[in-house]
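Listing 4. Sequential folding, example run.
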Amino acid sequence: MKVKQTLLAAIAATVMAAPSMYADTPDATAPAAAGSTSTNSSDAMTALFGDPVVASGTGVQVKRSELDQVVTGFKSAYEARGQAIPPEQLTRLEAQMLERLIDIQLLLQNANDADKAVGTKKANESIAALLDKSGGSQQTLDMQLKAAGTTEGELRTKVTQEATAMAALQRELGVAVTDDEVKKFYADHPSDFEVPEMAHVRHILFMTIDPTTRQPLSDDAVKAKRKQADDVLARARSGEDFAKLAEQYSDDTTTRDKGGELPAFPHGQMVAEFDAAAFSLTNNQISDIVTTMYGYHIIKLLDMTPAKTLGLNDTLPSSDTAVADKTTVADKIKDYLVSQKTEQLAVPYMEKLKKAANVKILDPDLSDAADALAKAMADTNNVPSVPPTEK
């Protein structure tokens, strides 16, 4: 959904991605592939070289391990999408993440009870949304977070801290958005609120690859999977309960316990063969055997939702009722505009806080990168250049 891509910050931004604390961030909630060695490598480096403090000040202390954890989360999100961060950009990324951690610690010192309440609320919503994206399966969410080198408790703490810090910053800056500004943004960006056609299906998967190694099964095993798929398809078309067949035979552990049901999805979200088959079906129709890189699928269409444009007071579509009932398009536009205004005012304000707290970046390379970053942000936001962070 375009409105989500445009207005929603990454749910797990604290550990996975965010070039700036104050800017809207790309979706980077995809976990690292199972077996990723990034976290283990960081632990090994800490064991070898200790855990030095890389930034300090009044009420501020950031250790190398804390910085490494955030950077590793960011890199893991890229790796999960088959991408990599160029080595020449790594120091800049580390400087961005370090500035983020410093800013959070400074702002938390000024947070009041209302700011903390906002932080807790945002964290609850974020975890609920992340669970929703995991198909409502707590087990799946736990596995994804483990692959990304974290736990739900750790993620909740970090999201709470960041949301609390952001609430404190917005209060300190006096950032506000009027109803007229919300309406104008909505009117000026009609395409951002288009919800595409959505398919809602059940499926049964017969995997032809090893779920751990991702290597193809033997020819005999693949032939056996195909025969099993043909047999189950015949039973489904003869009238047997599709959900029960999925519970019994599907190799998709994420959806098997829910009768193979997937959350509704738009064109382009699934692999091409699955996507084409799903959107070619009519309600309650069962597909032929569909072959993808994962194996053989049988798909049953439950319903198709036509494309539409959301109104200002419409709630954001979600399979998680608790999230959907509380979040309207107007709410998300307001959050986005508040973030934009905050981004413009934050740089000089945070530099004042750092100076007052005598914040020093102790690593020379990170200090140089942070100075360059501060100058670039000042130029981008069209504000006077501020003195570099003290080395």
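-- end of first protein; second protein begins --
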Amino acid sequence: MASEETGADGERAATAVSGAPGRPVVGVVGAGQLARMMTPPAIELDLDLRLLAARADDSAAQVIPATMVGDERGLLDLQRFSDGLDVLTFDHEHVPTAHLHSLELAGITVRPGPHALPYATDKAVMRRGLHGAGVPVPRFAVIETPQQLPGAVEFVGGWPCVLKTARGGYDGKGVWLASSAAEASEVFQAGVPVVVEERVAFVRELAAVVARSPSGQAVAYPVVESVQRDGICVEVIAPAPGLADETAVAAQRLALDVATTVDVVGVLAVELFELADGSVLVNELAMRPHNTGHWTIDGATTSQFENHLRAVLDLPLGTPQALAPVAVMVNMLGGDLPDLHRALRHVLARDPGVRVHLYGKQVRPGRKIGHVTVIGDDLDDLRARARHAADYITGVIDE
């Protein structure tokens, strides 16, 4: 187990106390909802879960007592936090790679390792690395100046095309669909390389979530459909409806191959474009539990969060088998109503089968503040129920 102490600066710091013999100690860098959702499986497996949070009121810090408040980009704080851990893992991928190499040299086990994380933090590294390994990706070019843009656009097939900052983007940020050089000017303001990609004529977006352990064991969850709005995932359907068996199997194999190629340990989410001919292209990678896998908490025998913890500790992985023919997960995005709990009585009474997950976050417009999941066998019914619950809680509807 662990307790906490308050230092002279008033910050909470995790401190170890005696607990069950042999209890593994897992440190999580980052304190968002992903770390928060690791808590239930950590309790079930009797793991000592510790947290490095930017703020004491971050989502996961509210429920993980062993929290250290510090700077994940500062080597000294990372070294202090890593003392006594069996393994260090992540809620996000934004820790400087050089610091992680330093921790490994000091004997700290980091999973996924700093050799793999750049594939998730740097889109240029990811595109070049996957393309070089023969993984299907959109046609792309990496540039650094506006003067290189015309040649890159011609190479990827002309306007319109997609431009992405190589580092720092998420949930639609750092991504532009541009039809001219004038519309593309903003992308260079970040001062990082720019990835220019063809505009893919895809049918829909899919995601393949897998988990892989250091010993090489791996499992693949059902391939899901990811419904996006303004670059943000708003709904996930598991499995992807109408997906041909051969496409689903190919997507799972592709994700497992990528995990092996980049030597990921833990959960890897591979976001995909499905094309009209049934083939797929890799769009993005995430080396941690992912939004498209949240349905597994209520809809799979072993959730992505439990399998991530099992994987980084090199424990045998749990089955990813679905508990029902269909699961629908709908994200709740912040609106004008700051009080989410006022709606729970209505939602839970109206539909006892809805599973509600709130993240303890301050409500801001467009911010992911929770999700709801419903499982069953009627897709249309499940979508309607999940959407109603999410809309009522966020104030989109009032009946």
